[in-house]
Design brief:
Strand content: 15-25%
CATH architecture of the largest domain: 3-Layer(aba) Sandwich
Low-confidence stretches: none
Helix content: 25-40%
Number of strands: 10
Number of helices: 11
Strand order of the largest sheet: 1-2-10-7-8-9
Largest sheet: 6 strands, mixed
Number of domains: 2
């Protein structure tokens, strides 16, 4: 299997003007730099699935995502590098009418796209539906949306290899909660872990997260779903202005779907005095910058 990461992630301190006088320090773990396509947390969630597919002598991988899914693109690139074929089950029949830049990139990596109605897509975790897909697409190894599941959590645990001691708070955007779950399992319990959910009413993912955590960790993290900007993938001028201002202050590009909304939330929490003055915060950049393709003309970088 090809080794995807091309660069080591690193920790970048933020400009003190961005967070003072509210807390002692804020830094960002730049997972976005490891690869131009399989960036951020995507590789860590996918690595064990790719190994499992190859161990099973699978012909390819079948996975799920929406028209703007970072996961679909990352899986397409990673599977191609591993010599595996690709099938993407895409949410929404309308998505076939005009392919997004994301889906076009998936096609460029050889992914076959199959578009399904929302009612069918909502069965993506259903065992009977998986059995139907296994029968229809023989030889394909199924990876859940976003790399969710035990193997995704196990892979996410390795992100903590890049988190040194001394941080009091870890902040990470949480779509499926897989990355947060891996980090929570691997870190010392005294470290505060917070997930910033980019979906409206997204705190429902706690149930999914707790499925992969031991009982004593079920209340050992916090979820915030206040800063969704209208829902998953939604944006407005305020968010775009924030992305540009953050870049100008810190020279770090943020993706509009995940990390930008998290950092906006962190900024709001700083102003509200949520964090203690002695907090040393590490925010995790989960990549996905390809998702900015539709707003690139509005960005300063």
């Amino acid at each position: 299997m090809a080794t995807i990461p091309e660069h080591e992630p690193f920790i970048q301190p933020l400009n003190p003007d961005w967070y003072q006088p509210f807390v002692e320090a804020i830094s960002m773990l730049r997972l976005d730099v490891i690869h131009p396509v399989v960036s951020g947390n995507k590789w860590y969630k996918l690595q064990h699935y790719l190994k499992a597919a190859q161990k099973a002598s699978a012909e390819g991988i079948l996975t799920f995502g929406g028209a703007y899914s970072n996961h679909l693109v990352a899986t397409a690139a990673a599977a191609k590098a591993s010599g595996l074929k690709l099938i993407g089950i895409v949410r929404g029949l309308h998505a076939a009418d005009s392919l997004t830049p994301t889906l076009n990139e998936c096609v460029s990596f050889g992914m076959q796209l199959f578009f399904v109605a929302k009612e069918e897509y909502d069965r993506k975790y259903d065992a009977d539906y998986h059995a139907t897909l296994n029968e229809k697409y023989k030889g394909y190894y199924i990876v859940d949306e976003g790399g969710a599941g035990e193997l995704g959590v196990k892979g996410s645990e390795t992100i903590t290899d890049y988190i040194p001691e001394g941080y009091t708070h870890i902040c990470v955007s949480s779509g499926t909660g897989t990355t947060l779950c891996g980090i929570r399992r691997a870190l010392n319990e005294h470290v505060n872990v917070s997930g910033y959910v980019p979906m409206k009413g997204g705190a429902y993912i706690r149930k999914d997260i707790n499925n992969y955590l031991p009982a004593h960790l079920h209340n050992s993290y916090t979820l915030f779903d206040d800063w969704h900007f209208g829902g998953f993938g939604k944006k407005n001028d305020e968010l775009l202005q924030f992305i540009n201002a953050f870049y100008q202050a810190n020279m770090i590009p943020l993706d509009m779907v995940y990390t930008a909304k998290m950092m906006y939330g962190v900024q709001q929490q700083l102003a509200a005095g949520y964090f203690p003055k002695n907090a040393r915060i590490l925010c995790i950049h989960t990549g996905g910058l390809q998702g900015n393709s539709t707003i690139k003309d509005k960005l300063v970088y």
